[in-house]
Design a protein that fits this description.
With 272 residues, this protein is α/β, with parallel strands linked by helices. The chain folds into 2 domains: 202 residues, 2-enoyl-CoA Hydratase, Chain A, domain 1, CATH 3.90.226; 47 residues. It is built from 11 helices and 10 strands. The strands form 2 sheets. A 6-stranded mixed sheet has the order 1-2-3-5-7-10, sandwiched between helices. Helix 2 crosses helix 3, helix 5 packs across helix 6 and helix 9 runs antiparallel to helix 10.
């Protein structure tokens, strides 16, 4: 969490921009430069955009990025916090809703790619952890610095980071609250790709386009399965996987993929 001076305060409707591309990729841009700090109002707009994406079957993958190059997202705008502390509503007004919205991002049926430049701090990094993949600039910095304010990552970081990089490394990140380099984040598996800053968005969109070109229904079922298997026994997970496979094998895209293999041609998926 951090605060900063703003060049302008964005019109609420423009705080999160949604661009639908013809290749099935949607680009979702946090648009409150220079730091893209989240306010309650911005969270509401972000929620609206996610619900639009979830309802749109023409969107087959999503790139989440930040406006300008100084920050993907630097967390919450702490200028709102004095009112939360005064009224005792930081949980009921902010964190509970923020967690619901971040969960909605994680639960999108489409695969998601975070494209990050500058810094990803606090809630900004927690937001990136909700994505399936993360592409970061080789000179970016990442941190969960909440401990330095006497609190901890309350928007899912405590849950998602250990799952991604392991408990011991996650404790180091959260207990110390210090910056990590892109190289360290890449080495620990937090970043899937590390590229020069000027090609971050291009790389993420290209990656998302590849995902959008794969059979959408199969990817959606795999994504749901990976989440649902987490707390199941092996035998329960196998049974669930078999049931999911039955659905996938019945899709038009599965029939097309097999036919294309045997006729030695490129498949033409209909994403159904």
């Amino acid at each position: 969490m951090t605060t900063g001076k703003f060049e302008h305060d964005t019109d609420p409707a423009q705080m999160v921009k949604l661009e639908r591309r013809e290749d099935g990729v949607a680009v979702l841009t946090l648009n409150r430069p220079p730091l893209n700090l989240f306010t309650l109002e911005m969270t509401r707009v972000f929620d609206e955009r996610l619900q639009q994406i979830g309802r749109d079957s023409s969107i087959r993958s999503v790139v989440l990025t930040g406006a300008a190059d100084r920050a993907f997202g630097a967390g919450s705008d702490i200028r709102e916090f004095p009112e939360y502390f005064r009224t005792g509503t930081v949980i009921t007004t902010k964190l509970r809703y923020e967690n619901e919205v971040f969960n909605r991002l994680e639960d999108l049926p489409q695969p998601t790619v975070a494209a990050m430049r500058g810094v990803a701090l606090g809630g900004g990094l927690e937001l990136a952890l909700c994505c399936d993949f993360r592409v970061g600039a080789d000179d970016m910095r990442l941190a969960l610095p909440e401990i330095k304010l006497g609190v901890y990552p309350g928007s899912g970081g405590l849950i998602r980071l250990p799952r991604l990089i392991g408990a011991s490394r996650a404790k180091e990140v959260m207990f110390l609250g210090d910056f990590m380099s892109a190289e360290q984040a890449f080495g620990w598996g937090l970043l899937n790709r590390m590229v020069p800053g000027e090609v971050v968005l291009h790389t993420a969109v290209e990656f998302a386009a590849q995902l959008a070109n794969r059979p959408a229904r199969a990817i959606q079922i795999m994504k749901r399965g990976l989440r649902d298997f987490e707390n199941k026994s092996r035998d329960q997970a196998v049974d669930m996987s078999l049931a999911m496979s039955e659905v996938v094998f019945a899709t038009e895209d599965a029939k097309e993929g097999v036919a294309a293999f045997f006729t030695k041609r490129a498949p033409e998926y209909k994403h159904r």
